[in-house]
């Protein structure tokens, strides 16, 4: 590719393909993405952008590498803590084994934060599954190794109990926590509907990247895998469309959604 910028048609075609694959809307990311995308294509061995778009639709390896390229999330432990506490309070009242889905889970901080809060409240009979469309963050979540700013909300006592420190690296002490698993999964693929039923879905700061149609489709899929009387917790920045499937409930610590 001789030029270093994509024209409007090329970029819009790329946006369309990514939306079809993942539901993510990149339409307003042209200024920040265009030059990076040009370099990404060259790194993948393409000198023609149309060839890249064609192969992107049919090649699973290229599809995954491209999704990894456009979905770089940043999170930290105990993010939006009051909402996490609300989830734990709800679990304590259920008095049964509980399955939780974290989607997207990014590098695992949300999953492990829930597990830490559960351990502090003597809750053991829960299973947490984290899923993400980005293969790199899933591998990092499985490793459970962290350093720097992501740990800043944790107390020294929490770090000492739930992590093993080597130099500047803190590794999750999984023996102190409930079952925490991670899987590479696209919420719009069939695999998502085969994950089983969940009592709680935590999906924070994913819908902000979706257009209205993708949000509606996502809510339909959440509805299918959420157990009867299950709850959906979303991020403060997420706008949830009214698909007639959930009832918005206000609590002292925020809002959640119940199946209708």
TrEMBL record:
GO terms for molecular function: protein-glutamate O-methyltransferase activity. Its EC number is 2.1.1.80. Signal peptide: none annotated. It catalyses: L-glutamyl-[protein] + S-adenosyl-L-methionine = [protein]-L-glutamate 5-O-methyl ester + S-adenosyl-L-homocysteine. Transmembrane segments: none annotated. Keywords: Methyltransferase, S-adenosyl-L-methionine, Transferase. It is an enzyme of class 2 (transferase). Residues 1-260 form the CheR-type methyltransferase domain. Pfam families: CheR. GO terms for biological process: methylation. PANTHER family: CHEMOTAXIS PROTEIN METHYLTRANSFERASE. This is protein-glutamate O-methyltransferase. The lineage of its organism: Bacteria, Pseudomonadati, Campylobacterota, Epsilonproteobacteria, Campylobacterales.
């Amino acid at each position: 590719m001789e030029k270093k910028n994509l024209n409007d048609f090329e970029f819009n075609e790329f946006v369309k393909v990514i939306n079809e694959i993942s539901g993510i809307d990149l339409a307003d990311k042209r200024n920040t993405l265009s030059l990076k995308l040009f370099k990404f294509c060259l790194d993948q061995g393409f000198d023609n952008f149309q060839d890249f778009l064609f192969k992107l639709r049919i090649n699973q390896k290229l599809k995954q590498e491209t999704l990894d390229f456009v979905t770089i999330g940043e999170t930290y432990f105990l993010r939006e803590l009051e909402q996490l506490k609300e989830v734990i309070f709800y679990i304590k009242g259920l008095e049964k084994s509980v399955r939780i889905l974290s989607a997207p889970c990014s590098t695992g901080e949300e999953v492990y934060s829930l597990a830490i809060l559960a351990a502090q409240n003597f809750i053991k009979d829960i299973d947490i599954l984290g899923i993400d469309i980005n293969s790199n963050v899933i591998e990092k979540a499985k490793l459970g190794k962290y350093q720097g700013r992501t740990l800043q909300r944790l107390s020294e006592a929490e770090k000492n109990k739930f992590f093993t420190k080597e130099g500047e690296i803190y590794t999750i002490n999984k023996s102190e926590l409930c079952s925490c698993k991670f899987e590479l999964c696209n919420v719009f693929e069939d695999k998502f509907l085969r994950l089983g039923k969940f009592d709680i879905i935590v999906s924070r700061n994913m819908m902000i990247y979706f257009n209205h149609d993708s949000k509606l489709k996502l809510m339909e899929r959440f509805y299918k895998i959420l157990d009867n009387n299950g709850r959906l917790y979303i991020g403060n920045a997420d706008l949830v469309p009214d698909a007639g499937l959930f009832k918005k409930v206000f609590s002292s610590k925020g809002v959640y959604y119940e199946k209708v």
